[in-house]
Amino acid sequence: MARQARTVIPGQAMHVMVRGNNRETLFFSDEDRRIYLEWLREAARQFGCSVHAFALMPNHVHLLMTPQHEDSLAKTMQSLGRRYAQYFNQQHHRSGTIWEGRYRSSLIDPDYFLRCQRYIELNPVRAGHESSPQDSSWTSFAIHIGGKAESWLVDHQQFWKLGNTPFERQMKWAEFVRDGAPHWEDRQITESLLRSKPWVSDIYAKKVFKDTPDLAKIRHRGRPRKINSINSSA
Questions:
Q1: What is the pLDDT tens value at each position of the chain, 234 positions in all?
Q2: Would you kindly state one Gene Ontology biological process term found in this protein's UniProt entry (predicted)?
Q3: How far is CA 57 from CA 23, 74, 104, 120, 211, in A?
Q4: Residues 218, 220, 221: CA angle, nearest 5 degrees
């Protein structure tokens, strides 16, 4: 069966996920996680990706990135995947693949960006590993609320619109994440990601995919819902 073509538009954010082979553990220690993030930073800088958000789960990873070129995302993930797999096998005295096939990716409508970032940073809570996003040591949430600094993480323009000062943006973001997301929204993001389909509005799809409408077509269960931007609705 032919591989499904990925929808990548330079300058547009992508939600990316990689899983451990057979859902096996990818990170056994904080050192494993630290090294993965360090090599993510290096690969993203080398191949032209801006990293906006992340969540390192025991057996999978969520990333939110904007590629500068059409091949930036693929080269970043391939370089990171190969490097970490070699380290992981050496460190834990094993051999063979550690990844479950190719990474999954979903193009994100700019108006949906902050909702996708929230989805990622709430992943440990949704999975039952933590009771609140503040308890998660290995997501980007603490960075976005001013808890720690990571200069390599790039705030998206939608995040900048949350306020005129860092404090305003941090407070607005903390409130938005604490509010949580409706189940149908989480389901749409998950379904789009697993099928490597864009998560976009009808308006965005008609504008960007007018010549290739099937690339954006995905029939979500239930009644379609309108999603307002946090920037405009607050």
A1: 345 567 899 999 999 999 999 999 999 999 999 999 999 999 999 999 999 999 999 999 999 999 999 999 999 999 999 999 999 999 999 989 999 989 999 999 999 999 999 999 999 999 888 888 988 889 999 999 998 878 899 999 999 999 999 999 999 999 999 999 999 999 999 999 999 999 998 888 888 877 665 555 554 544 445 555 566 544
A2: DNA transposition
A3: 11, 21, 15, 10, 38
A4: 150
Half-sphere exposure of 48 (CA within 13 A, CB side): 10
Q: Which of 102, 78, 105, 84 is nearest to 26 (CA)?
A: 84
The tokens of 127 are what? 């999975």
pTM given for the model: 0.90
Burial of 186 (0-12, 13-18, 19+ CB in 10 A): middle
Bin 22: left if φ > 0, else alpha if -120 < ψ < 50, else beta. left
